[in-house]
């Protein structure tokens, strides 16, 4: 890629697995399986390009309404993903952090997640946040209740510490695949000034080149944050 302004934090709404599979006359579960493979490929590429933080929306809180068979298939995928030896989980030494209420997952998967987060805790080649059973509204309500239980009034700086992304800078760029132009309850608070990029590609077919195109597009944008002119223009 030519010299560009890189986002520090890129978040992905990895949508379109089911439709991608259906178009190939395959079950939705096959789409999810290829989706997980693509997640590893695309996130690794993002880190190699110099992105420091990657956040992926793997399962929304609302996705729990899906039929049990589909959820079981998704849980099986989480099982094989987090159950892998950590050397194979990420090609790079990236710290893995899981965001969302994982108590709904079978216990063995919760244990695997805990192990992976512990084993990668000191890795410093990047940070990968995986959102599972995550919903932004739920997160905000929980954060408010926590602040209240501490008997505290909050301001913007202190409120951030109650969110699951505490200590993590907001996403600079949010990429959604699958053709829908919405956030579907993803990082609503943190996305206040994120640049949004929508791709018609389904997630399993979103390529390294597609990621580069999204970053090039981001790079050309003027982020004004309400001011007259962007910082670096
Ligand atoms: C995104 O793909 C992955 C999850 C929500 C788990 P979908 O399963 O939503 O795929 P489509 O949108 O039905 O194609
Ligand atoms: C958003 O996709 C959630 C994830 C990608 C994990 P959905 O497929 O659940 O979103 P909607 O239902 O089309 O809004
Ligand atoms: Mg979808």
Q: Summarize model confidence as the mean pLDDT.
A: 94
Report, as a whole number of angstroms, the end-to-end distance.
20 Å
Query: Could you tell me which ligands this complex binds, including any ions or cofactors?
Result: 3-methylbut-3-enyl trihydrogen diphosphate, magnesium ion
Radius of gyration: 18 Å
| Cα shape | globular
Strand order of the largest sheet: 3-4-2-1-5-6
EC number: 2.5.1.-
Enzyme class: transferase
Keywords: Magnesium, Metal-binding, Transferase
Function: Catalyzes the condensation of isopentenyl diphosphate (IPP) with allylic pyrophosphates generating different type of terpenoids.
Short summary of the structure?
The protein is an alpha/beta fold and 233 residues long. The chain is built from eight helices and six strands. Helix 1 crosses helix 2 and helix 2 packs parallel to helix 3.
Describe the structure.
The structure is a single chain. By secondary structure, the protein is an alpha/beta fold. The chain has 8 helices and 6 strands, in the order E-H-H-E-H-H-E-H-E-H-H-E-E-H. The chain has helices at about 15-25, 30-50, 70-85, 85-90, 105-120, 135-150, 155-160, 210-220, and strands at about 10-15, 55-60, 95-100, 125-135, 175, 195-200. Strands 3-4-2-1-5-6 form a 6-stranded parallel β-sheet, sandwiched between helices. Strand 3, helix 5 and strand 4 form a beta-alpha-beta unit. Helix 2 (about 30-50) packs parallel to helix 3 and helix 3 packs parallel to helix 5 (about 105-120). It is globular. The two termini are about 20 Å apart. The model has no long low-confidence stretch (mean pLDDT about 95). Bound molecules: 3-methylbut-3-enyl trihydrogen diphosphate (IPE) (2 copies) and magnesium ion (MG). One 3-methylbut-3-enyl trihydrogen diphosphate (IPE) binds near residues 180 and 184.
């Amino acid at each position: 890629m030519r010299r560009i302004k890189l986002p520090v934090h890129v978040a992905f709404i990895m949508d379109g697995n089911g439709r991608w599979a259906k178009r190939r006359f395959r079950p939705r579960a096959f789409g999810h399986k290829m989706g997980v493979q693509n997640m590893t490929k695309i996130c690794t590429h993002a880190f190699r390009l110099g992105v420091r933080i990657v956040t992926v929306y793997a399962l929304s809180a609302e996705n729990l309404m899906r039929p049990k068979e589909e959820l079981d298939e998704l849980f099986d995928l989480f099982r094989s993903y987090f159950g892998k030896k950590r050397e194979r989980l990420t090609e790079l030494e990236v710290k893995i952090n899981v965001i969302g209420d994982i108590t709904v997952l079978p216990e063995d998967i919760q244990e695997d997640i805990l192990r992976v987060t512990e084993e990668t805790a000191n890795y410093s080649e990047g940070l990968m946040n995986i959102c599972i059973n995550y919903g932004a509204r739920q997160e905000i309500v929980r954060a408010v209740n926590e602040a209240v239980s501490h008997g505290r009034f909050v301001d913007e700086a202190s409120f951030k510490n109650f969110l699951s992304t505490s200590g993590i800078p907001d996403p600079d760029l949010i990429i959604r695949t699958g053709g829908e132009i919405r956030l579907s309850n993803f990082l609503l608070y943190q996305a206040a000034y994120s640049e949004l990029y929508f791709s018609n590609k389904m997630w399993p077919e979103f390529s390294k080149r597609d990621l580069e195109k999204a970053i090039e597009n981001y790079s050309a944008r003027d982020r004004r944050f309400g001011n007259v002119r962007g910082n670096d223009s």
